[in-house]
TrEMBL record:
Principal location listed in the UniProt entry: membrane
SUPFAM superfamilies, sorted: Cadherin-like
Keywords assigned by UniProt, alphabetized: Calcium, Cell adhesion, Cell membrane, Glycoprotein, Membrane, Repeat, Signal, Transmembrane, Transmembrane helix
SMART domains per UniProt: CA
Descriptive protein name: PCDC1 protein
Length: 688
């Protein structure tokens, strides 16, 4: 069999539904004995059976909308199984709806776009509300919040279902009111009724019926002329009451604006910002441009405004220095006031910013004199001397009168050319030259040196000997000088004994025009060489004979026999003489003083002494190597001067006992005597 129960949703737990044993017509006591069990079609056990009484109660509250969703009827099926004997009963629970849900819309807000050009009577479908309840508890009617432009009408579909429509009852103007907010209310038929609301946002779609309008018909701006690229000049703004593309405004320069200005400035098409683009290379202080604002409608509408930009000058240009004329080099004898160069100084800035002052350092022999407008002359203000300063780096400083001022410098190199204004100058006032006599021909004696600070030919020096005589002879016969380097050479051999010193002048002359010269005195001192042997002045031998001195026969010891007198033409040590006995017939009888040359007896004369004696005296100097001379003196021992002097060639001395002839004779005699003795001995032996 089958038992059907009805139960309202949301019934509380434990509430009685019925008695299953009674409704099935069985004894409740047998339920437990027959091991009854209830099999549910759902996962949850919504009902419970009391095994002792058979009472059926709610085990868990039921939500019909959750359990059955949108089904028109909501049923729960159970099977009751009994054993001994096995029996199966179907139990059906019909869940009844209660008004526990309010009508709701699927979206929290609905948007409707209505073009502003639509005429009254236009209709727009509104959304349906959903109510999980059924029957009269579901949605029954709709209402709309009051609005002068819209009303609500209900329409019926072919299947009989109803739906709401929004009807335009008055023309719209988006520029006056772009959005209309309405409240759509859905009500169910429950008791008490429940309702649900949803906002309806009506957006009026624009029609391009308005042109952009600028805030000002004329915009004024002021910028500095050195403003960098990207500097904001001004921001223009035009409003268009339309919306969307019809209200989107794009800015641009009008075609009547010059191409130069359009390149100089940029305008942002969306923000209207006018910025500097590049360098503001204009000479006009006020620039005029037309700006156009155009919307993006199908038939774009536009308007224009004037932009006046005042360019404020800044001191952004430094003075420009141009050298238009520069004669170079400048002769060092240029008189003060000589024009060196012409300068052109320009500044592109106007007004005070373009006025320029120009100067050069004070410590230079130059000055700047203004000439024509923006021109200066660089002239000499003092004497120039190339030998002190051969050139000048002149720094020309030009400063404008801007604030802050800008300074430009340019360096001008002025070279000073040489003038032959300096004579040669010798390194000393006089030169002393020492040379030994007997020098070879062409011997180098000395090199004089002169300097000339001038340049080139003006400083190239040539050397010559000034005409003079030495000991009655021309200077050229003694000396020569190198024209190029001042080297002095001997052209003859000097003799100290004839010429001990002399002086002459060397002239140094440059090759300038006119040539300048200077002279210096050269003192030549000839030094002695030992080239002269001592000359015997006394005693003097005549015709090769021996000088004879007479000494008394009985002369005492230290008797002055004679004094040898000699002279040496050399000088100093070469003329220091010493006297020596080279030979004496009786070395014990005479002695010679080495420094004075006095020949004296060493003892008293004896009657046994030979009457004639001969001595040889050597006179030697101290040169290196030393030179010497000899003199032979014959000494005659006599008390009176004889009428005729004896010959001293044999020297008056006794002949030597053993000379070569005597030795030969003695040897021969000895040999003959030996032979004779030997012969006598032989005869004696023979006889015996």
């Amino acid at each position: 069999g089958q038992v059907v129960y009805s139960i309202a949703e949301e019934t509380e737990r434990g509430a009685s539904v019925g008695n299953i044993a009674k409704d099935l017509g069985m004894d409740a006591a047998t339920l437990s004995a027959r091991k009854f069990r209830m099999i549910a079609s759902s996962s949850k056990q919504y009902f419970n059976i009391n095994a002792s009484t058979g009472a059926l109660s709610v085990n868990e509250s039921i939500d019909r909308e959750q359990l059955c969703e949108l089904k028109s009827s909501c049923l729960l099926n159970y099977e009751l199984v009994l054993e001994n004997p096995l029996e199966l009963y179907r139990v059906e629970f019909k869940v009844l709806d209660i008004n526990d849900n309010s009508p709701s819309f699927s979206l929290s807000e609905y948007h409707i776009n209505v073009p502003e050009f639509l005429s009254p009577g236009a209709r727009f479908t509104l959304p349906n509300a959903q109510d999980l309840d059924e029957g009269t508890n579901s949605v029954q009617n709709y209402t709309l919040s009051p609005d002068e432009h819209f009303r609500l009408e209900m329409q019926t579909r072919g299947d009989g279902s109803k739906y709401p429509e929004l009807v335009l009852k008055k023309a719209l103007d988006r520029e006056q009111q772009a959005t209309h907010r309405l409240i759509l209310t859905a009500k169910d038929g429950g008791d008490p009724p429940k309702s649900g609301d949803v906002p309806i946002v009506v957006t009026v779609l624009d029609t391009n019926d308005n042109a952009p309008e600028f805030e000002h018909s004329v915009y004024r701006a002021s910028i500095l002329e050195n403003s960098p690229s990207g500097t904001l000049v001004v921001q223009v703004h035009a409003a268009d009451l339309d919306e969307g593309p019809n209200g989107e405004v794009r800015y641009s320069f009008s075609n009547t604006t010059s191409a130069d200005l359009q390149r100089m400035f940029l305008i942002h098409p969306h923000t209207g910002e006018v910025t500097v683009n590049g360098v503001l290379a204009v000479q006009r202080p006020l620039l005029e441009m037309l700006i156009e604002a155009r919307d993006n409608g199908a038939f774009g509408m536009s308007s224009t405004a004037k932009l006046l930009v005042e360019i404020t000058d800044v001191n952004n240009h430094g003075p420009e220095i141009t050298i238009t004329s520069l004669p170079s080099p400048i002769p060092e004898d240029a008189v003060p006031g000589t024009v060196i160069a012409l300068l052109s100084i320009m500044d592109k800035d106007p007004g005070e910013n373009g006025k320029v002052t120009c100067q050069i350092p004070d410590n230079l022999p130059f000055q700047l004199k203004p000439s024509l407008e923006n021109y200066y002359s660089l002239v000499t203000s003092g004497l120039l001397d190339r030998e002190l300063i051969s050139g000048y780096n002149i720094t020309i400083t030009a400063t404008d009168l801007g604030s802050p001022p800008i300074t430009t410098q340019k360096t001008l190199w002025v070279q000073i050319s040489d003038v032959n204004d300096n004579p040669p100058v010798f390194s000393a006032d006089t030169f002393d030259v020492f040379v030994e006599e007997n020098n070879p021909l062409g011997a180098f004696l000395y090199q004089v040196s002169a300097s000339d600070p001038d340049m080139g030919e003006n400083g190239r020096i040539s050397y010559t000997l000034r005409n003079s005589t030495i000991a009655g002879s021309a200077l050229a016969s003694f000396l020569s000088v190198s024209l190029a380097n001042g080297s002095i050479y001997a052209t003859r051999a000097f003799d100290f004994e004839q010429l001990r010193s002399f002086h002459f002048q060397v002239e140094a002359k440059d090759n300038g025009s006119p040539a300048l010269s200077a002279a210096v005195t050269v003192n030549v001192y000839i030094s002695d060489q030992n080239d002269n042997a001592p000359a015997i002045l006394y005693p003097i031998s005549q015709n090769g004979s021996v000088a004879v001195e007479v000494v008394p026969r009985l002369a005492d010891e230290d008797y002055l026999v004679t004094k040898v007198v000699a002279d040496d033409e050399d000088n100093a040590e070469n003329a220091w003489l010493s006297y020596h006995l080279a030979h004496s017939s009786d070395s014990t009888l005479f002695r010679l003083a080495p420094h004075s040359g006095e020949l004296r007896t060493t003892r008293s004369m004896r009657s046994t002494d030979f009457l004639k004696h001969k001595v040889v005296v050597v006179v030697r100097d101290h040169g290196d190597p030393p030179l010497s001379s000899t003199v032979t003196v014959g000494i005659l021992l006599a008390d009176t001067l004889p009428q005729a002097l004896p010959d001293f060639d044999d020297s008056g001395e006794p002949p030597p006992l053993l000379n070569a002839t005597n030795i030969y004779l003695i040897v021969s005699l000895a040999c003959v005597s030996c032979i004779f003795a030997a012969f006598l001995l032989f005869l004696a032996i023979v006889r015996l």
